[in-house]
Amino acid sequence: MDAKQLGDDLTEVLHTEAELRDRLAELAREIERDYAEQPPLLVGVLKGAVMVMADLARELNFHAQMDWMAVSSYGAGTKSSGVVRILKDLDSDITGRDVLIVEDIIDSGLTLSWLKENLQSRGAKSVRICTMLRKPKALKVEIDVEYVGFDIPVEFVVGYGLDYAEDYRNLRDVAILAPHVYSGE
Ligand code: XMP
Ligand code: MG
């Protein structure tokens, strides 16, 4: 779905499909260099990271094994609760493996810092993070992120996997959601 089909639901397109694709290709080259010895296991965080994972994995010029977790820190709304629940766990044993977490967005950082520690505690050899988007001014915890697509302002964004109440994930671009859409919250 294209931004122009969504009328006044969106206030601004932050990054177009083409920009996202080009930036992801740059990140893939960095990842290939950093993991030249041994490809990492890509761990996608459902559901938001589905688009990033699909595009990143195909861009990488090595065997990209994928696994998935579903965690929840948000309800249907737009605010982080800080409470993380595992809704779906990994299928694979990550003991001794290099793990690259693939995420759509880092907002407060609470979800990712929890997830990183959780994966480290299972005996992963290394755990790094790749996120398409990050809101630096919204961070509440310090967290090292090795691969960042774009830093964005503190606005609620949708598209490229990111939803509001499960809608807008299939928007091709990343755009700011108009406040009137969620002002009834
Ligand atoms: P934290 O605050 O833990 O949040 O870093 C990470 C998760 O929160 C969701 N999130 C968003 N989803 N638009 C969305 O559609 C946003 O602007 C946004 N900010 C945070 C997302 O699921 C992410 O994994
Ligand atoms: Mg997410």
Provide a concise account of the structure shown.
The chain is of the alpha/beta class and 185 residues long. The protein contains four helices and nine strands. α1 crosses α2.
Provide a descriptive summary of the structure in words.
It catalyses: GMP + diphosphate = guanine + 5-phospho-alpha-D-ribose 1-diphosphate; IMP + diphosphate = hypoxanthine + 5-phospho-alpha-D-ribose 1-diphosphate. It is an enzyme of class 2 (transferase). Its main location: cytoplasm. It is a single chain. The chain starts with 9 loop residues before the first strand and ends with a helix. The longest helix is centred in the first third of the chain and has 18 residues. α1 crosses α2. It has 4 helices and 9 strands, in the order βαβαβββαββββα. It has one domain: Rossmann fold (3-Layer(aba) Sandwich), CATH 3.40.50. The strands form 2 sheets. The protein has a 6-stranded mixed sheet, with helices on both faces. A 3-stranded antiparallel sheet has the order 1-9-8. By secondary structure, it is of the alpha/beta class. Helix content is 23%, strand content 28%. Bound molecules: xanthosine-5'-monophosphate and magnesium ion. Magnesium ion binds next to β5.
Question: How is this fold's topology laid out?
Answer:
Elements: E1 10-15, H1 17-34, E2 41-46, H2 50-59, E3 66-72, E4 85-88, E5 98-106, H3 110-120, E6 126-134, E7 147-151, E8 157-158, E9 174-177, H4 179-182
Parallel strand pairs: 2-3, 2-5, 5-6, 6-7
Antiparallel strand pairs: 1-9, 3-4, 8-9
The structure holds xanthosine-5'-monophosphate and magnesium ion.
